[in-house]
Design a protein that fits this description.
Length: 91
């Protein structure tokens, strides 16, 4: 399997586990080696393709930028738990 296919399979499995075992679960996958953001052609910062693919499955993928310090990671997790749509806008 290609890397993207493997990652999509992981997102799928994490979302299934959250549905099966969680009550109002918010599945989070920590991947500090993957970028959280990418730049589009106009220079605007958007979520990376991996983060977008994870979100399609209902999984929050935390990439490199989320791990720059403990405060950033804590704030991201708090925002996810609070149901904020812009859960990492400050990064």
């Amino acid at each position: 399997l290609k890397t993207n296919n493997k990652l999509n399979y992981i997102f799928y499995e994490v979302s299934l586990l959250a549905d099966r075992f969680g009550v109002n679960a918010k599945p989070v996958l920590a991947a500090p080696q993957l970028p959280q953001f990418a730049e589009d052609e106009q220079g605007n910062r958007t979520f990376s393709s991996d983060v977008l693919n994870a979100l399609k499955r209902g999984v929050y993928l935390l990439g490199t930028e989320c791990f720059r310090d403990e405060a950033a990671l804590g704030r991201v997790l708090d925002n996810i738990m609070d149901g904020r749509e812009d859960w990492c806008d400050f990064l």
